Amino acid sequence: MTTEALLHDLFQAALTAVTAETRLPAALPQPPKGRTVVIGAGKAAAAMAKTVEDHWPGPLTGLVVTRYDHDLPTERIEVVQASHPVPDAAGQEAARRIVDMVQGLAADDLVLCLISGGGSALLALPAPGITLEDKRAVAKALLKSGADIGEMNCVRKHLSAVKGGRLAAMAHPARVVSLLVSDVPGDDPSVIASGPTVPDPTSFADARAILAKYNITPPPAVAAFLEAAEDETPKPGDPRLSGAETTIIATPQDALEAAAALARDRGYTPVILGDAIEGEAREVAKVHAGIARQVARHGQPAAVPAVILSGGETTVTVRGQGRGGRNVEFLLALAVALDGQPGIWAAAFDTDGIDGTEDNAGAILRPDTLTRAEEMGLDAKAFLADNDGYSFFKALGDLVVTGPTRTNVNDFRVIVIDRT
C-alpha cells in the first residue's frame, strides 16, 4: 500500500459514507394518504431522486434540478440540469415549475424535498423586480469577494422568490419533509442551499451589510429591492412552516469519521481537526502545515504515522488571473509552507468532484512536489500569487479528476505523516 493509494482510499471511504444510497433510505417518511410530490435541488439531487424511486413503496411524481453532468436516469422524478455556481435560465425555469408543483396541495399531501449543496444557484427564481442577469452579477461578485457561504447565502435568500423558507410557505398546508445533505460549516439547515424550506433568521439589513462589507455595488434593481425590504423571508414561528420537518442525512463529519476509521485500520493514528474549518485557503494551509510539522517532529497531537483530517469550506479572495479552486489553492500554499519536508503527503478535494469551476476534484501533494516543480521551472510562490493552483498541479501531473460524485459535503483535506 503506497501513501498515494492511501490518500485515494481515504477519499473514497469519505465519499461512500455520504452517498444518497448509503444515507437516504432510512430517513424516508411514511407515504401519505394523499399525493407525494418530490422536489429538490443540489449536486446530489439526481442521486437522491433515484434513491427515493428505488425505495418508495407508493406512487409519486416530481422534479429536481442538479448541476450539468450530474444527472442520472430516473423514471418518475424528472431531473433537470442547470448552471452552477452562477445561475442560468434552465435553473430559473426549473424553479418556476417546482413552484407550480407545490401550490394548491392539501393537508393530506406530502412534499418530499431533497436538498444538497449547490441548490442556491440551481434553484434560481429571482424575486419580483429582479432579473436573472441581476442575480448573476451579484453571484459573480460574491464568488470573487472572499465572502463565506453563510454570507453569500444570506444575500441569495433576499434576492429569491423561493429561498429562505419561501418554498415551504408556498406548499402550505401540505406536509413538507426535507432531507438534506450538508455542505456548510456547522450544518445549519437555513444555510444549506439557502434554506428553501426552513425559517430564515437573517434580514434584508444583513444582506445589505454583507454587500457593503465586501465593497460590492449591486445592479440598481437589486440595491432598490434590498433597500425597500418589503417582503421579508419567513421567520422562526411562521405558521406556514410550523409543520415542516427537516432531517440532515449526511454531513462533513460523517465523511471525516469514515476516513478516520479506515486510517486506523491501516495502522495510522487519525486526528480530526474539525468539520467546519473556514478562512482563506492559504491561511488555513499555514495552520495545517504547522500541525503536520508538530506531528513529524514531536509526535503531537499524534505519534507518527498519523493522518490529519479536516473539512469545512475555505474561501479564496481572487486577486490573480489563474485557474484553480480553493482545494488546489490550499495545497499550493501547504507546499510552500512545508517546503519539501520529508515524509509528509497531502490531498485536498471538493467532495462533489469539482474544485471551483474546473474539471478536477483536487490534487495530490508529495514530499518532492517543490523539487519536481523547480526542475520544470515552476515557481510555486508565483503560481500562488496568481491563484493558479490548477495549472501548477496540472503541469506536475498531480491533479485528481473523479468526475461528478453526485454528493456534496464540501471540502475534504487529508495530510499523511509517514516515518522517514
TrEMBL record:
The alphabetized UniProt keywords are: ATP-binding, Kinase, Nucleotide-binding, Plasmid, Transferase
Record keyword ATP-binding present: yes
What Pfam family is a match, any one? MOFRL
Xref: InterPro entries = GK-like_C_sf, GK_N_sf, MOFRL, MOFRL_assoc_dom, MOFRL_protein
Give start and end of each MOFRL domain: 307-411
MOFRL-associated domain residues: 7-227
Quote the SUPFAM superfamilies the UniProt record gives: GckA/TtuD-like
Q: Name one GO cellular component term.
A: cytoplasm
Which is one GO molecular function term here?
ATP binding
Metal-binding is among the record's keywords: no
The protein's name: Glycerate kinase
Provenance organism? Azospirillum oryzae
